Amino acid sequence: MALLSQQLQRFLLTGLSHDSSSKSSVRTSISIDNNKSRTLCCSAIAIDAPSSLAGVSGIRWGYKSLQGLRDEMEDDVVVRSDGLEGFTFAAVFDGHGGFSAVNFLRDELFKECVLSLQGGLLLSKKDISAIREALRKAFVKADSKLLTWLEAMPEEDESGSTATVMFLGNDSLIISHVGDSCVVLSRSGKAEVLTDPHRPYGSNKISLNEIRRIREAGGWVVNGRICGDISVSRAFGDIRYKTKKNEMLKKGVEEGRWSEKFVSRIQFNDDLVIASPEVYNVALSSDTEFVVLASDGLWDYMNSSEAIDLVRNQLRQHGDVQLATEALAQAALDRRSQDNVSIVIADLGRTDWQNLPLQKQNLFYEMFQALATIGIVTAGIWMSSLLAA
């Protein structure tokens, strides 16, 4: 076994000696207190100074969580720099079926990642194969602990959560992704989507692979939902699709969702929902401006290019990444997002926003849009005149 670094030793002595509800003095994290009275807006504490996070110098962070038209806030945002050498951990958790799974994971997943990555040593070595295997083990182990914890609850708890995690260094970005949140990078103003949602719906490669995996495990997909219920195919928790699949079938019979004859033909071979992550390695070149990590409450109502353009325009105006994050979250609600919205933005500090020239407008494209609009209006007037005649 490799010798542990001094930083990891300190982390083990401080961070792991507390339970998941404790707050370490070296921890920098943002979370939503679900026990407080419900409000439409749940804001995360922003850290907008390089000195606030010692893991990576020069990077500025912004955070925001807003509660959409949901009964409760089930998201959480966490950013931590302790325990990792030269890297910062940033994560968005998007819960469903309650807040219990998220409440457990916001500390536990970080601990498992730090241990598996040997305090950031594997990240520094840039051995992507070793990193991928370490993160897979960390995610699976955290999920196993969560399932045991949920099963021991005095009352039935079927909560679950997606988790998209970034490990951000000076020149590299590692993403470990489970679920339907998304990471988008801005390279000289061009949006670069780095992750794909784990949903059993659509004809893209990821979705088709998920559908095939679910069917091979003995499950079925109805209208993009596993067993006609859950719409995300990779997540933590969700015990009814893992350790309590047979109980889920019996409950479905009692509720009249399917017949006993149907259940008799079902044979499960594996979990229907899994927590095994997809891991991405992204090089951060000189043209990399910022990274946006957000829950699907944003991406279901705004595409990647629109989000990048909005953030860039905000940063040009005032250079404040926290204000830009808040504006992006509010824009999602302005577009009638029905979901909770959680966003983390990391400005890499490589762009002089104050002196950045405005992007040249595509005059040909704008002219085409104008002519198309005129054509539509003219056609409308012509049709109206025909109907009136």
UniProtKB/TrEMBL annotation:
The keyword Nucleotide-binding does not apply. One of its GO terms (cellular component) is membrane. It is an enzyme of class 3 (hydrolase). Keywords: Hydrolase, Magnesium, Manganese, Membrane, Metal-binding, Protein phosphatase, Transmembrane, Transmembrane helix. It is a single-pass membrane protein. Its EC number is 3.1.3.16. Its cofactor is Mn(2+); Mg(2+). Signal peptide: none annotated. GO terms for molecular function: metal ion binding; protein serine/threonine phosphatase activity. This is protein-serine/threonine phosphatase.
